[in-house]
């Protein structure tokens, strides 16, 4: 039996003449969290809509637990928890009623404990229209997590949450993953990627332009050395370095030097030798990050 819970193969999706997804492929296995990343309009929500059976692809195929979600939406509903980008709650229903209604719509028995999991147990009798944006997001998450689904499709699940609620949401998502759920999550928050992602898929204009673990997608990319340089070194030409050098004036007498380099250890040694005996101050060496990759991907 395969461990693949979510699969997309050469997925294509059109809105009229515009092709929003142009041959995307990936898998998410049991117990794995994949972050689907990309700038606004890259095609992330479209991919999630196809996986939740709300949109038929115009090419390629997706499978959720081995089934075509467009054909087996009802059968898959109990096994797939979704935090949609824009939930459609009725404002007049209370938190408890909303939770019960949506959990039933997923073909599950109502779970009175679901709101408590996301810290909404004190708001059960409050109409949804009176919830804050962050509280609504937590209600979405409560409904998605109900019934311990095998797959979670989470479209910016922590958008608008305060820091404490985000960390609580991360804990819940991590726990579900550890218990075997396959999670596909979109986010624009880099700390969320760092906190959660086992693997990332980066979309650009509907195509996958990078895929792998954070270490894999950043491998071979440059490190950044930032250091403060005493004023009198400002006029001394820097040594020959593997990396590119940029100076920045600072408020004080010295300057800040940034070296973007594929050889951080050798360049740092060369800089230290150059700066002796006064030396460098506030030296920070930053390894490549997924954030660097995202910043380089144009829309
Ligand atoms: N119903 C629609 N009709 C026409 N075009 C659409 C429709 N929905 C999305 N699009 C277009 O498809 C492209 C992909 O949109 P999508 O919502 O999937 O992007 P996204 O990566 O989720 O963006 P964001 O980060 O802003 O949520 C965009 O150019 C968008 O304008």
From TrEMBL:
Domain ABC transporter: 6-230
The keyword Cell inner membrane is annotated on this UniProt entry: no
Alphabetic keyword roster: Antibiotic resistance, ATP-binding, Nucleotide-binding, Transport
Top-level division of the source organism's lineage: Bacteria
Major location (coarse): membrane
A GO MF label: ATP binding
GO CC annotations on file: plasma membrane
Protein's name according to its UniProt entry: ABC transporter domain-containing protein
Record's bilayer topology term: Peripheral membrane protein
SUPFAM superfamilies attached to this UniProt entry: P-loop containing nucleoside triphosphate hydrolases
Biological processes annotated in GO: response to antibiotic
SMART domains cross-referenced by the UniProt entry: AAA (SM00382)
Compartment(s) of residence: Cell membrane
PANTHER family: ABC TRANSPORTER ATP-BINDING PROTEIN (PTHR42711)
